Amino acid sequence: MLHLVRHAEPPSQWSDADLVAGLRRGDLRAQRIAWDRFAPTVYRLAHRALGSTEDARDATQDVLLCVFAKAAKIDKPESLKAFVTSVMVRTLKYELRRRRMRRWLVLSDTGQMPEPATLEPDYASRQMLRRFYAILDTLSAPARLVFVLRHIEGLTLEEVAETMDLSLATVKRRLSAAVERISAAIERDPDLARGMGRLGGDHG
Amino acid sequence: MADLPKEDVPIGSRLVALTRAARESFSPMTEVQQDEAFEAAVARLSEQRRRAKRWPVRSLAVAAVTLLVVGALARPYFARPKPLELSVEGAEMQKDGFVRASPEARPSLRFSDGTRVGLAGVASVRVRSVDVHGAHLAVENGEIRAEVVHAPLAAWVFDAGPFVVDVKGTTFSLVWDSVDARLVVRLETGLLAIHTPFTPEPISLRSGERLVATSIDQRVVVSALSSPDVEGQATDDRSQAVSPPSPPAPIDSSGTSAPAVKPAPRSGWAERFASGDFRSIVDDADQQGLDAVLAQRSLDDLALLADAARYTGQTAVARRALLSQRERFGRSARAVDAAFMLGRLQESIDPDGAARWYDQYLEEAPRGTYAADALGRKMMLVERLRGTAAARPIADQYLKKYPRGPHAKSAQTILSSGSPSP
């Protein structure tokens, strides 16, 4: 039976080896289980890195489709998660670079990107986050990802290094530069400074 | 070497607050959004594959034209490859290409690549053509045994009445009874593709398999060579070799025992579905006439068509295929599942109708694969249509039955929202 079955089998019952074998065959059930297993994490990180619900959904789809298409390249089943992570990092870097390119080529009247469709409940918070992500937009893709993984996603430095496939020293260097740059930009932004009270950060 | 910070650079409270806000702004996808995103991804994958299939055709066309031009220019400088040489042993080849066996002589055709075709009994074979990569032989009657040497571009064709056997490199025997219009192919090694006038796609025969095809009643039987019973049917008792009419055999996705009988015609939809080529299934149904397909195709094919139509966004076709499953196949497991699928299809256009389909499914399969999802979706629909108070009993029922189910969080929200304060 080739129906796309949701929750037909608990994902935990599929080992990574089963999943990789199924993905190599193009088995839809395996794709569904891989989706359920990895998409939430990919979506969360994409959302935090990109600051936009729509872009995060697109990126999630790109990442999982790439995993489905390139499953044959997974050497060892136990490296499935690492493979997904590497595809995710590559996709996010690509998306961030594409955005920067787009900013240079097609600036809006205000010189800013359209407002991301984030899900915050109130307008003031949304404005703060919008300005925050505008600052993040000035970082290079790797620097931004290092910052997001460490300070928004909450990974340890070692985990960031592993995820980004960088040395610990490079992660520290990039993180230091990113924090310095973001902090300076926040200080220079009077609107952001004024609005910080709402977010509980008015005494920094 | 530059000094490296030993630990994280401490971040100011403003940045801490902003990163916290960014963290808290995130809402995970709901179950419904997850489903929709996955289905959109599957549809996109299908479209990518469809385009990828076109690309080689275009590339090949360009390459073919290029080769033709280059070939024409280079022709004077290169000798043309020579066709295979053929010698006939044990008989003489007549002017019209016929080679005939007799009780006294069992001739064989020997080709310069090492391929050998032996004639048995009173077999008669006509050599239609011989080229660089193989030959085209017509078995007029009787039995032959062929040992075809495998080569990368090898292309051998054996005609037997209306049947055509494509060969790359195999050892097989072929019996063509021109009186009864009956073909028997026994494959010892390799792989064969056998084209018949009554199957839309060639039938693949694998090592150790036998095919018996009769053109008068348009039946094809494939069985294992090691199976003595079927051997008897296929060779000795022709009246039993004909299989009774039956719908196309289900494709067993688990890969377990293949059916002994491969009925004709096979749709090939299962293979296309497995490869993600959903659009071609729907196109195929359109070309054959949707009414006829819905009225005649097997339950498996209807299920494949319904899924393929759903994934390509053709909900009207999907709906008709699902309804046909229910009408024609009563309360088979798949027809029961169709009730749930019909609910899914109708959610956006007719929520009331969708809720009724979920009720129907839950009545027919209270512990079915989709039971938790059907109850959860019904709960959400009722909340949307009639408000939280009306959805509360369903939420309560849901949490009792599926406390950790996919809609448990929504059920808890329904139960907690608007409840009277103590």
Give an overview in words:
The complex is a heterodimer of chains A (204) and B (422). Chain A is mainly α and 204 residues long. Chain A is built from nine helices and no strands. In chain A, helix 6 (141-152) packs across helix 8. Chain A starts with 15 loop residues before the first helix and ends in a 5-residue tail after the last helix. The model of chain A is unreliable at 1-9 and 106-121 (pLDDT under 50). Chain B is α+β, with helices and mostly antiparallel strands and 422 residues long. In chain B, 44% of the residues lie in helices and 20% in strands. The radius of gyration of chain B is 32 Å and the shape is elongated. In chain B, 34% of the residues are buried.
Mean pLDDT score of chain A = 77
Percent helix of chain B, as a range, is 40-55%
Beginning-to-end CA distance, first to last residue of chain A: 60 Å
For the secondary structure, the number of strands of chain B is 13
Helix content of chain A: 55-70%
What fraction strand of chain A?
under 5%
End-to-end separation of chain B? 67 Å
State the shape of chain B. elongated
Task: Give a quick set of tags describing it.
heterodimer; A: 204 residues; mainly alpha; 9 helices; 69% helix; elongated; disordered N terminus; B: 422 residues; alpha+beta; 13-stranded mixed β-sheet; 14 helices; 44% helix
Topology:
The complex is a heterodimer of chains A (204) and B (422).
Chain A: H1 16-25, H2 28-50, H3 53-69, H4 80-105, H5 123-136, H6 141-152, H7 157-164, H8 168-188, H9 190-199
Helix pairs in contact in A: 1-2, 2-3, 2-4, 3-4, 5-9, 6-7, 6-8, 7-8
Chain B: H1 13-24, H2 31-74, E1 86-89, E2 98-100, E3 108-111, E4 116-130, E5 135-147, E6 156-160, E7 163-167, E8 171-177, E9 182-189, E10 191-195, E11 203-206, E12 209-214, E13 219-224, H3 228-235, H4 238-241, H5 269-274, H6 278-288, H7 290-296, H8 299-311, H9 315-328, H10 333-346, H11 351-364, H12 371-386, H13 388-401, H14 408-416
Parallel strand pairs in B: 5-6
Antiparallel strand pairs in B: 1-3, 2-4, 3-4, 4-5, 5-8, 6-7, 7-10, 8-9, 9-12, 10-11, 12-13
Helix pairs in contact in B: 6-8, 8-9, 9-10, 10-11, 11-12, 12-13, 12-14, 13-14
